[in-house]
Amino acid sequence: MAGGALKYRHLSRSSSHRQALLRNLVTSLFTHESIKTTWPKAKEAQRLAEKLITLGKKNTSATRRRAQQILYHPLTHLNTLFTTIRTRYLHRPGGYTRVLRIEPLNKHHDQAPSAILELVDGPKDMRFHMTAKTLVRERASEEGVRELTAKNVQKVTRYREGGMEDLEKEVRRMEMVAGDEEVKEKAKWKVDERPREGWKMERIGRLRQKT
Q1: Which of 42, 90, 162, 173 has the fewest CB atoms lying closer than 10 Å?
Q2: Residue 142 class from Cβ within 10 Å (0-12 exposed, 13-18 middle, 19+ buried)?
Q3: Model pTM score
Q4: Helices of type H across the chain
């Protein structure tokens, strides 16, 4: 109908091509836990991924048949959907995936808006790692942890099994990495200063000989 509301993005493709594209993106998402694509594709794939995870939580013969029709590699991913992912989101009411805007992947051509589509509370949850990095920085500062950061900690650990323990492990890991980088940086500066000091002493010796 002309002038009607847009129910979904056509993605400049035919219906069959569009469905094949989204099935491929969702299959890749369940394989890698996180994928990069354009913003419109990520938003449409997010809808299909949320429906599939809901089917996995119901865990009936009908939902298994429906998921098998959508996934490109059902023998590989059906077990993951109905065991690992189902257990992870069993107590989460919704919001199983997240779309994060990033810089355009193709900077030299069309510069299409790009995004990361990821599974929430997974091993590649970017917001979880960003919150841990923020905690490391704010705990080392004099002001301490801000209220906004405390709210983000609650969000990323609320439905995650062993969320606070995992977050503290990630914080300790990042603190160790930061400490190692600081030691390496200091050692690098010491190595760089040695030839400069030798050059200065040599120059002073030449000036003394001239005088």
Answers
A1: 162
A2: exposed
A3: 0.77
A4: 15-32, 39-58, 61-70, 74-79, 86-88, 126-140, 147-157, 163-210
Q: Residues 136, 178: contact at Cβ < 8 Å?
A: yes
Gap between the Cα atoms of 108 and 33, Å rounded = 28
Q: Cα–Cα distance between 174 and 168 in angstroms, integer?
A: 10
- Express each pLDDT in 26-77 by its tens digit: 999 999 999 999 999 999 999 999 999 999 999 999 999 999 999 998 888 9
Q: Of the candidates 130, 135, 163, which has an alpha carbon nearest to the alpha carbon of residue 150?
A: 135
d(CA 34, CA 127): 12
CA distances from 209 to 201, 203, 206 (A): 13, 10, 5
CA distances from 60 to 50, 55, 56, 94 (A): 17, 8, 8, 19
Q: What does the alpha-carbon distance between residue 56 and residue 77 come to, in Å, rounded to a whole number?
A: 11
Give CA–CA dist 23/64, Å, rounded: 16
Radius of gyration in angstroms for the set of CA atoms belonging to the chain, rounded to a whole number: 26
DSSP class of residue 116?
Answer: E
C-alpha span between 206 and 170 (Å, rounded)? 55
Residues 6+ apart with CB under 8 A from 96: 49, 50, 53, 85, 89, 119, 120
Number of CB atoms found within 10 A of residue 86's CB? 16
Instruction: Quick: pLDDT tens for 83-104.
Output: 999 999 999 999 999 999 998 8
